[in-house]
Amino acid sequence: METLERHLDAVAGRMGGFLRGFYDPRVHVGSKAGFILEFRKIMDLPALGQPGHLKKISYAKAAASCRVSMPSAEIAAASDPVSTLVRGLHEASILSGETRGELPLDALESDLTSLLRIPIMVCYLSIADRERFFADVKRMAGSQGLPLVALEEMPEHGRVACPKCGWQLLPARHATILQCGKCAKQFEFVRSLPMVSAVAALVSYEILRRMVALDVVNSYQEEGKIVPLEFGGETA
Q1: Is 23 helix (H, G, I), strand (E, B) or coil?
Q2: Whole-angstrom distance, CA of residue 147 vs CA of residue 206
Q3: Which residues does 79 contact at the CB level (< 8 Å), separation at least 6?
Q4: Model pTM?
Q5: 145 in the Ramachandran plot: left (φ > 0), alpha (ψ -120 to 50) or beta?
Q6: Are 186 and 177 in contact (CB under 8 A)?
Q7: 112 with 63: CB under 8 angstroms?
Q8: Residue 22 · residue 36 · CB < 8 Å
Q9: 3-class secondary structure for 152-172?
Q10: DSSP count for the chain of H helices, then E strands
Q11: DSSP readout, 50-111?
Q12: Are 58 and 46 in contact, with CB atoms under 8 Å apart?
């Protein structure tokens, strides 16, 4: 089991490599260990279907109890998040060597794509220009159809309108994400932080990956390893 845990940590670390500047301490001012802790939250979510079973299992559980056949040559050579996770499960199968139930690749890729869109990662971003950042994020969300609410300023009375139907968004799941009180659609969000040129985000891995790629983002860090951020010589 210890070997499997180290393997899952290694796979989580590889996923960090798809974020801009992950290995550059000037850009990713958190730590690889901190990111792994955040990404392991994703690995523990029940999101993967099993043939013949109604309940879904987590990536970590699948690594411990399921077999994934050798990926196609295309997946084996691909450098993208989903292919990396598929290879991670196949490698876990080799580590165990036990006879297991198998996860079909076609459904697995679809489930992993959905897994990477579940909002659970809390990160903080230092930005060069607040107005440009929020304009870029809103443009990105609109053009790509992302379920993301950007809160540059809290609206009057603290009421946020659903981008889909205009109804009020309410905190959901222990106030970690926003959910429409009418259409029930859930939204990830990024909000401005007072006094500093920075934002806090509760987002999925996929939206985080796109967000940190914006050139207006100076640096980012995961919740687990917060270090002081300096803005114009002042420490937040």
Answers
A1: coil
A2: 11
A3: none
A4: 0.83
A5: left
A6: yes
A7: no
A8: no
A9: CCCCHHHCEECCCCCCEEEEE
A10: 8, 14
A11: -TT-SS-EEHHHHHHHEE-PPPPHHHHH--SHHHHHHHHHHHHHHHH----EE--HHHHHHH
A12: yes
- The encoded tokens of residue 125 equal 């971003």
User: Looking up tokens 């659903």, which residue turns up?
Assistant: 162
**205-212 and 130-144 helices cross at what angle (nearest 10)?**
130
The number of residues making up the chain comes to 236
Alpha-carbon distance of 70 to 89, in angstroms, equals 10
Per-residue pLDDT in tens (0 to 9) along the chain, 236 residues = 558 999 999 999 999 999 999 999 999 998 999 999 999 999 999 999 988 778 999 999 999 988 887 767 766 667 899 999 999 998 888 887 665 788 888 889 999 999 999 888 889 999 999 999 999 998 988 888 888 888 777 655 556 777 777 667 766 554 466 767 767 777 788 888 888 899 988 889 999 999 999 999 999 998 754 443 332 333 33
